[in-house]
Specification:
By secondary structure, this protein is of the alpha/beta class. The chain contains 14 helices and 21 strands. The strands form 6 sheets. A 7-stranded mixed β-sheet has the order 12-13-14-11-10-16-17, sandwiched between helices. Strand 5, helix 6 and strand 6 form a beta-alpha-beta unit. The radius of gyration is 24 Å and the shape is globular.
Length: 503
């Protein structure tokens, strides 16, 4: 069976249909990173299509906002159950389209299920506050209300989870959705959005405008961002893309939620359990072929253990199984495309120009169509050059340090501020790292790697990572508008601050 036929069979198993061979003049050819073969040709949404879709989403919002939040939660619960039933098919589709190994595809689908479960409980906890008033017979209330149409722009590396993080929360908060997936992974979007709408129909809900799918490249994303009906744009991708989205939204006084790049570091202290370090660093740096925003890119190692740790890491990286992500036992699949491979090679060349010692990074033997590489380890005497730039590929830069404060400064020197970690058995080092004078990242871990966040905590980062937060904790507040209400239940009208205004 060809990979294209595999996609058709998977959609059929999901109970969905789609035009996978569009003859439209404006269409996207979708290729699998596994061998470069074409999976489908998908029609692009025209400007008129975008405008009509967002009009439908706005009209559906006017009704959806009136549905009680626990009832909205019933849709999300049923959607999560539907995804659970189709977990193997969805995981395989992710692997076909992104090159992720099947285990990671299954993990991503589990994220969709997990955030649905979280959001169902949240649908009964969209709470405000009662605040003491300075005036007699008055009370202050804080209430939260649906926002409107939420625009979602997702990246190729998590073609289902990122949508679900946003969609599950936005739906229980009373919003409708418009989703522009990466042009590299529209098939995963067609499948997941199709299951959401199918679930809604099975519950007897009107689906028009509930979740509109917009396929295309930059022009479609720009139309989504600039459309007056969209009240919040949640964008995941590169820092350059996020800067454009943020500036456009600011000019329109529109909310933006940005989840952008990450140049993530881990500090390895003298007391660290090196077995845990090797295991954690290998997954964080080589998992998803280094194509996670939380991938480990910088390893800051105490000089006393530097030689021993690097020797062990090199031995592990040398034997990592690189190959077809659908094959059992593979741990590292291909890069998404040739541009990613070229960016990786350029970064390694820049490091070599700085007299770095480069281990691996070469293209692995294949049939010549997929871009398979052995994850690289690059030793530098100091943090410089490409080490301070995010390259979306499996490159692990390693530098030594002498004092813990120096290591924290190196961690914080990056322009991005997404994820970070420290490996230590010293309580003082762990506490300092997670304190106000420690890591300046949105995620600061102790004795685990930089990747693999759970949905219970808010996900996101600072600086050039964009400052947005998705998923758990109180991230739901981004999808609602806050109102402060003053209620006078007395028979007089005292003014605040003791002002007298007699008429």
């Amino acid at each position: 069976m060809t990979h294209a036929n595999d996609v058709s069979s998977l959609l059929h198993a999901l109970g969905l249909s789609a035009d996978l061979d569009s003859q439209a003049a404006q269409a996207i050819a979708v290729h699998t990173p596994i061998d470069g073969s074409q999976l489908a040709r998908i029609a692009v949404s025209s400007p008129a299509d975008v405008d009509a879709a967002l009009g439908r989403a706005q009209q559906r919002f006017l009704h959806w906002r009136n549905v009680p939040a626990p009832k909205r939660g019933e849709l999300v619960r049923a959607f999560g159950d539907t995804v659970r039933r189709h977990k193997p098919e969805l995981a395989r589709l992710i692997s076909l389209e992104t090159g992720k190994i099947l285990q990671e595809g299954l993990g991503e689908v589990q994220e969709v299920i997990d955030i649905c479960e979280f959001a169902v409980g949240l649908s009964r906890q969209l709470y405000g506050l009662t605040i003491a008033s300075e005036r007699p017979d008055h009370k202050l209330l804080e209430t939260w209300h649906p926002l409107g149409v939420v625009g979602i722009i997702s990246a190729f590396n998590f073609p289902m989870a990122v949508f679900a993080w946003n969609a599950a929360l936005a739906l229980v908060c009373g919003n409708t959705l418009a989703w522009k997936p990466s042009e590299k992974t529209p098939l995963s979007a067609i499948a997941l959005n199709g299951l959401l709408l199918r679930t809604a129909r099975e519950l007897g809900l009107e689906t028009e405008g509930l979740s509109e799918l917009l396929i295309g490249e930059r022009a479609v994303g720009e139309a989504l961002v600039n459309h007056p009906q969209v009240k919040l744009v949640s964008a995941t991708g590169s820092t350059a893309m996020g800067k454009n989205v943020g500036l456009a939204c600011a000019g329109l006084f529109k909310r933006s939620l940005l989840e952008l790049g990450g140049n993530n570091a881990a500090i390895v202290c003298p007391s660290a359990n090196l077995e845990m370090v090797v295991r954690g660093a290998a997954f964080a740096a080589a998992g998803t072929a280094g194509q996670r925003c939380t991938s480990l890119r910088r390893l800051i190692v105490h000089r006393s253990i530097y030689p021993a740790l690097v020797e062990r890491l090199v031995a592990v990286f040398a034997r990592l199984p690189v190959g077809n992500p659908l094959a059992e036992g593979t741990l590292v699949g291909p890069l998404i495309d040739g541009r990613a491979f070229e960016a990786m090679q350029a970064a390694l060349a820049s490091a070599q120009a700085l007299q770095a010692k480069v281990h691996f990074g070469q293209r692995e033997a294949s049939d010549g169509t997929g871009h398979y590489v052995r994850p690289a380890i690059v030793e530098l005497s100091e943090q410089a050059g490409p080490m301070l730039q995010e390259t979306f590929a499996p490159i692990l830069y390693v530098v030594p340090y002498d004092e813990f404060d120096e290591a924290i400064a190196l961690n914080n020197a990056a322009a991005h501020g997404l994820s970070s970690a420290v490996f230590t058995q010293d309580l003082r080092e762990a506490e300092q790292f997670t304190s106000a004078r420690g890591s300046d990242c949105g995620i600061a871990n102790v004795n685990i790697g930089t990747s693999g966040a759970e949905i219970g905590g808010a996900f996101g980062g600072e600086k050039e990572t964009g400052g947005g937060r998705e998923s758990g904790s109180d991230a739901w507040k981004a999808y609602m508008r806050r109102a402060t209400n003053t209620v006078n239940y007395g028979n007089s009208l005292p003014l605040a601050q003791g002002i007298r205004f007699e008429i």
